[in-house]
Amino acid sequence: MKPDAARGSVAADLRTLLRFPGFRRLLTVRLLSQFADGLFQAGLATYVVFSPEEETSPTDIAAAMAVLLLPYSLLGPFAGVLLDRMNRRQVLVYGNLLRTALAAGTCLLVISGVPDWLFYLSALSVTAVNRFVLAGLSAALPRVVDADRLVVANSITPTAGTLAATLGAGSAVAAQALPRTPVAEDALAVALAAAVYLLAGLAALRMARGLLGPDPDEVLPRLTAALASTAHGLAAGLRHLSVRPQAGWTLVAIGATRFCYGALLVMVLMLARYAWGDGGNDDGIALLGAALAASGAGFFAATIATPWAVARVGRLGWFSICAAIAAVLVPALGLPFRPVPMLIAAFVLGLVSQGAKIVTDTVVQSSVDDAFRGRVFSLYDMLFNVAFVAAAGLAALMLPPDGRSSPLLLCVAALYAVTAYGVFRLRRSSVSRETTT
């Protein structure tokens, strides 16, 4: 199919999907929920990194990432077991209402200046509920579209949700310029997130109670048996990857690029806090927002460039090129540690990171047996976040307080180069096997 025809087909499918009332309402809940997620997470980031009362260190950032991401990553695959025992529409209603209360409580904690452990506990509670809401949104999708359009619906809704979260994060950064007191600056984005979570919960009420399932007459295994089955399933997924080397090694490669992205993100946070922002003023927050916007533009560019590139050099060829581009341009643009080259680097990283992820998604979907696909994607999700947290840990060890670290930048470039070479070798071996067979 020609690219123009493909785009036309997707546009036509989207128009058709929007005619389904259930899909429109479910998509509205997703967009509001993830917009609020972006607001909340960016509000946390600016509080942790830019609070004038705190001398934030890379170790503080690594600890925050570990607290907020690791429980989500390790417990996420088990959320579906509980979700299958709850009315999904009610999960969306009460989950968003609960997040409203928890986000409002976090806002009060920020204003009150409580100990860090209490703040992190409250923030972790919000992210824990996020797992159930996002899983509920995904599990409910087959109930609101027909089977023929489920694939395109699965493509459109996560992309739209990611865009909504990015807009939410950008709105949080922009909101920092409105109030003029430090406490209000720290709390405003979190308070706005609470309000939008409330809107998402109210939007979910527009759907019929039984619309999203599960059907009450379905026979389910006991909870303990279902949890044990999930653990065994993840192990089986890991064993399946051992006999699917292309998918397994591509996941290793995407973990490496995610590690690189995480380390560079911590570096940019510290540069914006101390080197560019002179101790957390508005300039640092604005530059951080510009870097996030540049990275988001790179993500969008990848969705356009990747199909064109894959058609010419193949999936693994494009992945290898993405990693090679990062290996060259990260030190070239990053070593001056100046804002403008770093903004260009942020765009490049967004492009190559998303390009590599699109390739990885496609490789896993096409290389893994359908019976194992869900379990492998659960492992993929865990790897993605664990690599991010591990990168923050390395950055905590290597970064000086102002974020300028040539050794870290060169280590990241070297890892990108090794990844590019490894994927290139994987591509050659895959082509060789196909030729032999």
Question: Summary?
Answer:
The chain contains 14 helices and no strands.
Count of DSSP E strands?
0
Give the percentage of residues in beta strands: under 5%
Number of domains: 2
CATH H-level superfamily title of the largest domain: MFS general substrate transporter like domains
Question: What does this protein structure show overall?
Answer:
With 437 residues, this protein is mainly α. The chain has two domains: 20-228, MFS general substrate transporter like domains (Growth Hormone, Chain: A), CATH 1.20.1250.20; 236-437, Growth Hormone, Chain: A. Helix content is 83%, strand content 0%. The chain contains 14 helices and no strands. It has helices at 3-17, 21-50, 58-83, 88-112, 116-140, 150-175, 182-204, 223-242, 245-275, 282-313, 315-334, 339-367, 370-398, 406-436. Helix 9 (245-275) runs antiparallel to helix 10 (282-313) and helix 11 packs antiparallel against helix 14 (406-436). The longest helix is centred in the C-terminal third of the chain and has 32 residues, at 282-313. The two termini are 27 Å apart.
What key attributes describe this structure?
437 residues, Growth Hormone, Chain: A, single chain
Which helices and strands occur, and which strands form pairs?
Elements: H1 3-17, H2 21-50, H3 58-83, H4 88-112, H5 116-140, H6 150-175, H7 182-204, H8 223-242, H9 245-275, H10 282-313, H11 315-334, H12 339-367, H13 370-398, H14 406-436
